Amino acid sequence: TRGGPLAGVRVTVTAGPTREPIDPVRVLSNRSSGRMGFAVAAAARAAGAEVRLIAGPVALPTPLGVTRIDVETAADMHAAVLAALPATDLFIASAAVADYRPAQTSDRKLKKTAESLSLSLERTPDILAEVSAHDPRPFCVGFAAETDHLLDNARTKLTAKQLDMIAANRVGHALGIEQPDNALEVLWADGAHSLPRAPKEQLARELVALIAERYRLQSKP
Ligand code: C5P
To answer: Where is the stretch described as Phosphopantothenate--cysteine ligase (predicted)?
Structure first.
């Protein structure tokens, strides 16, 4: 049997962006590379966990020993996460899920006949908030990418979504999305820990070590 701080723990990780169709050829998406989530999945596996990685459209190799499920839209990711839920002890939501999707998807390619075009958007399901509200619930770890008021916004999300932990990163200053390096402020109800700027692979190992420590404290009080 495998050892490690997460030995025998069933971990589900979401990663990457989602892609919301406007018509058969056009999508709404974001700049998430998926690299942080893939690194977290690899680090959780290295820590002994049984890892399921639910990935949006990204061009990254599947970490060794990890079960990968590819999805496209927020709705697909939502369904895949719910299907995995009965076999999830620890949920790490690193995906940059689209917050809005086109309210209608056209079956045919839209023509550029009009001078301007308005898209009507609707909210997508908040996967993490839903998993966290589930009974029984897994240990829930969220991410918060913020340009401003990093710690305040992250702490607000920790409370609002009733998370066990949140990893906050600043975006927009050569850090975060689309960058090989990142830095994280990890928060939980009665504590915090800064992980200074490092390659995402190293940061993922440090984050998984922190998660394993908190997870074991709450599962074996
Ligand atoms: O509220 P916000 O989108 O900033 O929260 C970010 C956290 O929530 C991330 O962990 C992200 O993966 C998760 N999330 C989600 N489903 C959504 C939106 C965000 O799981 N629709």
So the answer is: 11-221
Q: How far away, in angstroms, is 181 Cα from ligand 1 center?
A: 21
Per-residue pLDDT tens digits for 9-37: 999 999 999 999 999 999 999 999 999 99
8 Å CB contact between 97 and 124:
yes
ipTM of this complex: 0.97
Q: Mark out the alpha helices in 52-160 (DSSP H runs).
A: 74-84, 127-133, 150-160
Find the 202 Cα to ligand 1 centroid distance in Å: 23
Q: Which of 30, 153, 169, 182 is catalytic?
A: 30
> How far, in Å, CA of 68 to CA of 77, rounded?
12
Q: How far apart are CA 16 and CA 34, in angstroms?
A: 4
Contacts of 47 (CB under 8 A, 6+ apart): 4, 5, 6, 7, 208, 209, 212
Sorted by sequence, the CB contacts under 8 Å of residue 7 that are 6+ apart come out as 1, 47, 48, 49
Distance of CA 57 to the CA centre of its chain: 13
Q: Please give the mean pLDDT across all residues of the chain.
A: 95
Q: H-type helices in 85-199, by residue range?
A: 127-133, 150-160
> Is the pLDDT score of 94 beyond 60?
yes
Hey, what are 99's tokens?
A: 């917050």
